[in-house]
Structure formats: structure tokens, C-alpha cells
């Protein structure tokens, strides 16, 4: 009963004019809020493996990645074709003891387009026909 009265009073204090909001509560019970209790949930052991790849001949986007994790140890690699035609492959590993380590390998030959200076073509100046007849 007292809780309903308290809730009704608090609800009316919010919606009524200000002089009602400061009216004292006489002999009303005090509501006590308790902090939520944290419930420990079991943590799942992290273990996964995945891979994917893209090979789009229209755009030249060619790349792939694979990775696996077992607990706190992660190992993987990815590769991609660079704009110069060579392939970059990065192999990596991470764990609590060694931290993150990556090794980069580059294969293939870089092909750079040869810039050719534009050749200027000039046309002969147009001939003007001048008449001596007035």
C-alpha cells in the first residue's frame, strides 16, 4: 500500500505544477535501490579458423586471407596483388609470450609502365588569299 502511495506521489510530482513537487512526505516509507549483482558467466574457449579470397579479373582485385585461433595463439597470413603486379604475402602470429610478429614476402616482378613523352604535332599555318583587286 505504501509503495503505491509513494509511486503515485512521485508520478504526480513530475506532472503537477512546481509547488506540488516540493511538498514533504510525512511518514512515507523510503525506497532503497540495490546495486545489480554481477553474475559470473562461463567464458567460452576461443577457437576458430576461417579463410576467404577475392579474384576479380575486371578490377584486378586479387587477395586472400586465412587465420586460425586456438586459445590465446593466433596464426594466419594474407596476400594481395600489388598495383605493380607483384604479390605481397604477410604471415603473422600472436601469443602472450612473443606478442605480434609479422613477416612480409614479395614475389613476382614489379612492372612499371614506361612513361612516353607526348609528341607534339603542329599543323602548318593557314594561307591567306589576298586579292589585289580592290
Largest sheet: 5 strands, antiparallel
Mean pLDDT: 78
Our Rg estimate from Cα atoms comes to: 39 Å
H and E string = HHEEEEE
- Structural class by secondary-structure content: mainly beta
Q: What is the strand tally?
A: 5
Percent of residues in helices: 10-25%
Structure explained in plain terms:
The chain has 134 residues and is mainly β. It has two helices and five strands, in the order H-H-E-E-E-E-E. The chain has a five-stranded antiparallel β-sheet with strand order 1-2-3-4-5, with no helix packed on it. A hairpin with a 2-residue loop joins strand 2 and strand 3 (73-81). The termini are far apart. Residues 1-23 have low confidence and may be disordered.
List keywords for this structure.
2 helices; five-stranded antiparallel sheet; mainly beta; 13% helix; 5 strands; disordered N terminus; 134 residues
Walk me through the topology.
Blueprint: H1 2-15, H2 18-21, E1 47-56, E2 61-70, E3 73-81, E4 87-95, E5 99-107
Antiparallel strand pairs: 1-2, 2-3, 3-4, 4-5
Compose a concise summary of this entry:
The radius of gyration is 39 Å and the shape is elongated. Strands 1-2-3-4-5 form a five-stranded antiparallel beta sheet, with no helix packed on it. The N terminus is likely disordered.
Amino acid at each position: 500500500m505504501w509503495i503505491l502511495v509513494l509511486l503515485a506521489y512521485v508520478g504526480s510530482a513530475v506532472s503537477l505544477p512546481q509547488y506540488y513537487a516540493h511538498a514533504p512526505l510525512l511518514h512515507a516509507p523510503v525506497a532503497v535501490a540495490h546495486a545489480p549483482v554481477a553474475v559470473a558467466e562461463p567464458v567460452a574457449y576461443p577457437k576458430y579458423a576461417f579463410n576467404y579470397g577475392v579474384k576479380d579479373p575486371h578490377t584486378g582485385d586479387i587477395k586472400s586471407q586465412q587465420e586460425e585461433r586456438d586459445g590465446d595463439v593466433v596464426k594466419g597470413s594474407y596476400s594481395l596483388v600489388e598495383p605493380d603486379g607483384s604479390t605481397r604475402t604477410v604471415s603473422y602470429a600472436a601469443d602472450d609470450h612473443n606478442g605480434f610478429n609479422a613477416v612480409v614476402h614479395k614475389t613476382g616482378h614489379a612492372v612499371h609502365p614506361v612513361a612516353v613523352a607526348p609528341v607534339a604535332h603542329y599543323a602548318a599555318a593557314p594561307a591567306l588569299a589576298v586579292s589585289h583587286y580592290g
